[in-house]
Amino acid sequence: MESELNFSFNFTNVVVSRRALSPDLARGAWAPWPTDPRCRNLTVHFTHAVPPRALASFPGSGNTWARYLVEGATGIHTGSVYLDEELSVKGYRGEKEAWNSGTTILQKTHEYQDQTISLFKGRVVLIIRNPYRAILSYHNFNAGGHRGHGSVTDYRRREWIMFMRMQLRRWLLTALQWLTKGSDVQVLHYELLQHNLTAALTSLVTTLGLPADTHRLQCLEKYNSGSFQREQQFFPADVKIFPSDLRRLVDRAILYVNNLLMKRKLPLMPIHLYEFYNGSVPQSIIRHTCQTNLSQTQCDALIDDMNRTRAFQHPFILSAHDYLNDLINGVGRDHLQGIKLSAPVEDLFTSAPEFEVNSQLR
């Protein structure tokens, strides 16, 4: 049965008081920085009987990076509702724990359906990232794994626009569902982690009822990237990643969620740090002009090679045919089943020029 998002929900931001989490020493420890004399004694452990709390996000919003930071800052493993063997091998030992075992402090999920929110009893740390960057990152993950990139030819295809619109709707639903139906909601803004790591982590850790360890935070400042940070991406100079009509749609979605955060008295989006927003020029995109004797196909292949070299462990880059169509026609639609956007939100996906986000949320 479809569920209508209820904007009359009486939201209360509840902070659960927690006693200090005791490490389960019998299960051993993981040392994230074993070669550094100042940091090698800081370890990460499992714990006991912690109520599940989702670490929820749209894919591509830095969930894996946030897990690394939370584990380093708290000394407690994070978990997941999924099982990613690559993450497990890289030291995310909580990846193989049952999400509701009580042994991890937060549990990764990209789900937002009512059932998921109910299973977590509305407890969540919601990661919000600039949707321009989040959807680009998700596209790259599908094509190249945790550190690779998709082919630049993808952005020349009409399927890219379809993919972008579908994933923007999913980004919007992820935020709206958790913000309106969660009972204990904390928000973590990806760009604030990038801009001021220590301040953002201190705020999160203390909100979770744990002490902020200065020594741990200093080590995280030194080793702040984790294992899966993606490099800057090269693009052909003539490719328009986000056409103007698409940018207007994304900008309106950003304003909509930001106004919802304001109504719920939660930290607002740092939109001054949002690349592409309101016509801003991105800093993480490197435009490359090919020599005039190269065809468009040759130029795209050259730039794919440049991106592949940066993500050195990925021997190939998939084309749009390998996954864009699958996401549009199958997998991507599965995430949207059973959820109906309320009329004001659906208006974001129309071309009605009179739509104004602020007036819809008053």
From TrEMBL:
InterPro entries referenced in this protein's UniProt entry, alphabetically:
P-loop_NTPase (IPR027417), Sialate-O-sulfotransferase (IPR051589)
**What top-level branch of life does the organism fall under?**
Eukaryota
Family statement: Belongs to the WSCD family.
- The protein depicted here goes by the name WSC domain-containing protein 2-like
Per the UniProt record, the lineage of the source organism begins with: Eukaryota, Metazoa, Ecdysozoa, Arthropoda, Crustacea
